[in-house]
Specification:
Layout: E1 7-12, H1 19-26, E2 33-35, E3 39-40, E4 55-56, H2 59-67, E5 71-77, E6 80-85, H3 86-94, E7 98-102, H4 105-111, E8 120-126, H5 130-140, H6 145-158, E9 167-170, H7 174-192, H8 197-205
Parallel strand pairs: 1-7, 1-8, 2-7, 3-4, 8-9
Antiparallel strand pairs: 3-6, 5-6
Helix pairs in contact: 1-7, 5-6
Bound molecules: guanosine-5'-diphosphate and adenosine-5'-diphosphate.
Length: 206
């Protein structure tokens, strides 16, 4: 039976909840995955690498990509553009990989309206409390006071989207949370085998 393909694990959560940290843990325990490197107009933080964490570009370059139809989705998040390039995602899916998106709630809603919606398993990640989120953003020390304030304010809006997601994960104990995320990643791959359902029914009917 052919018709093999990959799956998409879409994670969202307020800035500072620990998405990147969790994903680094998860990568130790899964294989055949592809992290979708987003394009952004945000300035790189210390230690971030172009082509690894993000593809950093100017507003003009980003708008050219929008006009060329290069994005599966894009959004203005905390005052900067962020977008997912369609081509590498399609290539990775064709190679039967688990494609990982770390995108915001607007991106989630947009992807769910595309032809790739049925590939998606979604997870909303958060901290046990808003205070803990604020502490993590302050301790990470990558953003100014103003930027942190904006992110905490947006977190209160983002949390209202929680019910749209397949899974909800509290990143309290890192090791426990990453084990749960590995289970969800494995389930996401199994969900993609449901695409063979129609082929199986056809075979039964012959
Ligand atoms: N819609 C959308 N959101 C993205 C994309 N890439 C990153 N984001 C989101 O943008 C937000 C800010 O990301 P970033 O500036 O790296 O801050 P961080 O979440 O604190 O690490 C996060 O919620 C990301 O999930 C993308 O391609 N599309
Ligand atoms: N489970 C956890 N417990 C305590 N601190 C954490 C945990 N997960 C992540 N952190 C810390 O919180 C900060 C934000 O994590 P990060 O992965 O950058 O978040 P995000 O990618 O969601 O913005 C970092 O300083 C990170 O070391």
């Amino acid at each position: 039976m052919q018709d093999k393909h990959g799956a998409i694990l879409l994670i969202s959560g307020p800035s500072g909840c620990g998405k990147s940290t969790l994903l680094k843990e998860v990568y130790k325990d899964i294989n055949e995955y592809y992290f979708s490197i987003s394009t952004t107009t945000r300035a790189p933080r210390e230690g971030e690498k172009h082509g690894v964490d993000y593809l950093f570009c100017s507003k003009e370059e980003f708008e050219k990509d929008i006009a060329a139809g290069n994005f599966l989705e894009y959004a203005d998040v905390h005052g900067n553009y962020y977008g997912t390039s369609l081509k590498p995602v399609k290539e990775a899916l064709a190679q039967e990989k688990l494609v990982i998106f770390d995108i915001d709630v607007q991106g989630h809603d947009l992807v769910k309206k595309t032809e790739l919606a049925s590939y998606v398993t979604s997870v909303f990640i958060t901290t046990p409390s808003l205070k803990e989120l604020e502490n993590r953003l302050n301790n990470r020390a990558t953003d100014s006071k103003d930027v942190i304030e904006k992110r905490v304010k947006n977190a209160k809006i983002e949390i209202n989207s929680i019910d749209k997601y397949d899974y909800f994960l509290v990143n309290d104990d890192l090791s426990k949370a990453s084990k749960k995320l590995v289970s969800i990643a494995n389930a996401a791959r199994i969900k993609s085998t449901l695409f063979n359902k129609d082929l199986i029914i056809k075979e039964w009917m012959n």
